[in-house]
# Entry
Amino acid sequence: MAAGDSFYIATPIFYVNDVPHIGHAYTEVAADVLARWHRQSGDDTWLLTGTDEHGQKILRTAVANDTTPQQWADKLVEEAWLPLLNTINIQNDDFIRTTDKRHEDAVTIFLQKLYDDGFIYSGEYEGYYCVGCEEYKQLDDLMETETGDYAGQLVCKIHSRPIEVLKEKNYFFRMSDFQQRLLDLYEERPDFIQPESVRNEILQFVKQGLSDLSISRSSFDWGIKIPWDDSHVLYVWFDALLNYITAIGYGVDDDEFQRRWPATQLVGKDIARFHAVIWPAMLMAAGLQPPKQVFGHGWLLVGGEKMSKSKLTGIAPSQITDTFGVDAFRYYFMSAINFGQDGSFSWEDLSARYQSELANGFGNLASRVIAMVNRYYDGVVPAPGEYSADDLKVQSVVKAAAENADAAIQTLAIHDAIAAIWTIVDELNGYITIQEPWVLAKKDETRERLSTVLYTATEGLRSLAVLLSPVIPEATAKLWNALGAPAGLGDLTDQVIVDAGHWGQLPAGSRLGTLEPLFPRIEPSEVAG
Ligand code: MSP
# Structure
């Protein structure tokens, strides 16, 4: 991507029937890391997230809690979903709720257009529905249970709860008209759905043929009214998918819409079908471009199963951040799991990586180097002398790491980007062990060499602060306060990330600030789980 390009990234909008767990936070962090990276590359970046508030699932939760769905949604948004963004340090540019008037108005415009253009007709739906998934189901999505509360009943394979049998007059969207156009899209743009495993699954699904989609319900009224028939409300997924365009001015602010759309869309693989089949078909019907990309990431697993509240395996993000801090949360999930694959969460793995990678690998490196500049040069960055082959090797590792990390981010391979950046951490740790600055400090004739070594290490830290700032914003801000800011380099977030690998940006002669501890030691007794 060239600097200044538009980069619009969106997370799914989250159901407000319950509070967030780390699976939800995972999508948010991934989107935020990508958005911060693009912002620091000078791109015209926009990160959207929000909440999905209509439909039977929310309605039933509200009724079960003796309240109205609107009050329930307001409470959950205020008390759980907005605070989540703080807990994990998300810099979103907007937060959309499907009960926002701006959303409802633009959805109405969209629906009326599809109706006027003949893409919606009235018919009768007869079949199964899972309220947990908010999805119409085929027989092979269901199973008959033999034991437990629902013995002998048909249950949804995902939620293990009984499904509803519907027979209703509904409005239908002519999705079957779009089968060939969707297949052409997947063919022409192999990157449209990623990773490959998700792409293949969607391809198989669409090749089998598409049915028209029921897009309205008349047996309850918690939803957006169908503009030409107010005895129906819009199907919650049709409503929710539109958030990606209603939030950026669809039907209301054409300039803003043109500036932002299309989006890179991160979704869990379980909801890739909605995003890669129904959503582009809806957009095609309205004469709009499909998303730039739909990326289906993997699941966080607990005990080998998708972590979920309904299965009581949900872990609240604050359980982790309270002990390990927000940076460790972000770093762990982004580096330990290949983005696009499933990953198992365990407290042991988190603790081990915190200690070895963040505290010992990165944190110690930063504190040792800064302590040596303080000790041997009174806190003033020394000017390098002539560079040796070892010093030049550090420079080339930094340069390659910055290039490789940027290339990885362009394909959403966040874990590869972090691995590329970590080559600098490893290189600098090895470099210091071999150069032994504490030995060089002992003799006058090796003082010049000491300057070069410490300049090299400090400048390496500068590149690390910039490259890691999208992933661990708090720790890198502390490092920057000790290093870049006092040297007059400006704010950390203003550092152009693609230039991070250019050597020699830290001016010799600048005085360091104090370094606050980056990753304090955590006693095993403090760890939950
Ligand atoms: N409201 C719909 C999305 C509508 S988007 C137009 C929805 N909401 S959700 O709250 O159930 O899930 C939101 C996201 O969280 C999905 O992408 C889902 O895949 C993700 N995750 C839920 N549990 C997860 C894990 N255990 N691991 C990783 N992601 C998980 O679906």
